[in-house]
Write a structure and sequence with these properties.
The protein is built from nine helices and no strands. The radius of gyration is 22 Å and the shape is elongated. It is mainly alpha-helical.
């Protein structure tokens, strides 16, 4: 009993290491499946992809929803990092454009994230509010910076910009016309050109308004 503490038994150490490995495998499997298939996946599918039993999923995370929440949070942290990089920049137009491109690329490449940002109420729990708020605040500041240097029209709000970029990330198959995987870049470029301060018409109607970040009546 060195230093007055009982020695840790080897089986317990091995069990904890095995538990961590299974947790990492579940997270890795969930990240791939959420990106490929979206949020409508079963516990059995997740466990099979991670090569563990369904019981392991519940022991490690408590529920499938908790595992998906952890997966989405990990992706949201990537969005937050993109916000930090953009806010640290010194070229307002480029910083805004690079931030928007980072967001759209994430939404296009991750079906589950696209479902989440489009308003899946189940996953709009309070745990996401700080991360969503950070993205919204960053976009508001970056839009304001570009407006202060006269690069984008003053009658556009950051909410308009957010709705437009979400549209750029949406599927483009329409009336038999199919977009390429990278078509979002063309759509985003057209959208950004449309935000330019010169050669514009007065915008009709009112800008979008804020909705609740979490479901009414609870988290």
């Amino acid at each position: 009993m060195p230093n007055g503490r009982p020695e840790q038994s080897e089986p317990a150490v091995v069990e904890r290491a095995d538990s961590r490995r299974k947790r990492r495998r579940l997270l890795a499997a969930a990240k791939v499946m959420v990106a490929e298939q979206g949020l409508d996946i079963s516990s059995a599918e997740l466990a099979a992809r991670a090569e563990v039993g369904v019981g392991t999923l519940y022991r490690r995370f408590g529920s499938k929803e908790a595992l998906l929440e952890a997966t989405l949070l990990d992706v949201m942290l990537e969005s937050n990092a993109a916000a930090d990089r953009a806010l640290a920049g010194t070229e307002p137009v480029r910083d805004l454009e690079e931030f928007l491109a980072a967001l759209v690329e994430q939404w296009v490449s991750n079906r589950g994230l696209a479902e989440f940002i489009a308003g899946s109420d189940v996953y709009h729990s309070d745990v996401f509010v700080p991360h969503v708020t950070k993205i919204r605040d960053a976009l508001a500041e970056l839009t304001a910076r570009a407006q202060r240097v006269g690069s984008i029209r003053e009658d556009v709000t950051w909410r308009d910009v957010l709705v437009l970029v979400q549209a750029a990330a949406s599927p483009v198959d329409v009336l038999g016309i199919m977009g390429t995987p990278a078509h979002w870049r063309r759509s985003l470029t057209v959208m950004l050109d449309g935000l330019a301060a010169k050669g514009r018409r007065t915008l009709p109607g009112e800008p979008p308004v804020d909705g609740p970040l979490a479901p009414r009546g609870g988290s």
